[in-house]
Amino acid sequence: MRSGLSDDDLARIDQHLATTDDLLDTVYPGDSGARQPVHTVYVPADQFTPDFAAQWGAQALAAVEAAGGMEALAAQVGIEPGLIGEVAGRVARKLSTEPIEDLRLDFEDGYGDRGDAEDTDVAMAASKVSDAVASGSAPPFIGIRFKCFEKPMRARGLRTLDLFIGGLLDAGGLPDGLVLTLPKVTTTAQVEAMIIAVEALERVHGLDAGRLRFEVQVETPQLVLGADGRSPLAQLPVVAPGRISGLHYGTYDYSASLGIAAGYQSMEHPAADLAKEIMQLAVAGTGIRLSDGSTNILPVGEGAAEAWALHARLVRRSLERGFYQGWDLHPHQLVTRYLATYAFYRDGYTDAAARLRTYLAQEEGAVMDEPATARALAWFVLRGVQCGAIDADEVAADIGIRVEALTALAHPRLADHALARA
Asked: What Cα–Cα distance (Å) separates residue 359 from each residue in 102, 263, 264?
């Protein structure tokens, strides 16, 4: 066969695309396949104790019992009858063994301004987190939300971050699931300032480069649409490659900033959906995870039944829109967080497993799935396994692969390895 492209032509093409290749490698590496928690719980930092998660789990189970049991409550909040038997026992076990997946000790809105007294609470927080990790009572993911980088609070926020990291290291080391939350971000410059801070801390403490990652809260209009008419959200992965672990939508700060009346501030307001769709577009393919916000309508008192149903519906809504994490503000919300989440994965598991099995066996089926769809199916099943909605034994029996191979299939860069090991 005759070839018209010379080695010189191919070299020129490679040179022309070198910047694109570097961008794809550094900014768009795809998801790592590591576990993402289904929620984040915030607690004022001075109220944290090593048994905090167990206390919330016990309160959640007591609320279930008072409501007539898990199956009755599942039916009440709209879980499909055919799924109730599959999820009820799993949720009860989850609340007994790992009620909180991600916990943030809050030194921001939930804590307030306490001046220099915050130093004492930071030291206590670091000590108690270390105790919880050592005893095995800490959630898999745990960390702090410090004050934002706006001028009046910047020094305080940085000092709290500095003291907390130092306190953890003095007490024995950083937890594997350490998470740091930078709130009320308005510009990419604030994210760049955070990088300066964490790089300095890594250098001073002899930590590996990149050890201190952080999540960004999206709760200001300026971060969604900047003064120049562009979205700073899309620049975050570029200015901080590999540093940002997640974007968290802030329901009430964002809504209030737009002038939306308090009674209409909601995770499902059209303004919220627009912001979250831009978040999705901005970080697609970067490996940065997304989290939805919260609802402050709590399942307590006479309105508990309606609040539980609302929360379950909102959790399901977020999941269907590709937001696999959200905020929970009260122990009773743990019940509907897991009921809705487990029902979501159980509802889609049978079809996903069948399609994956057909895809891996390279057989013809009713649906012809491409590699990108197979990866999405694998991610769906893997997320279900990671949160406890699906068992690893089920995956082996129904799909014919180990969870390790499922993880590789879900990661775009490892898909070929997954097929080989299957």
From this structure: 34, 48, 45
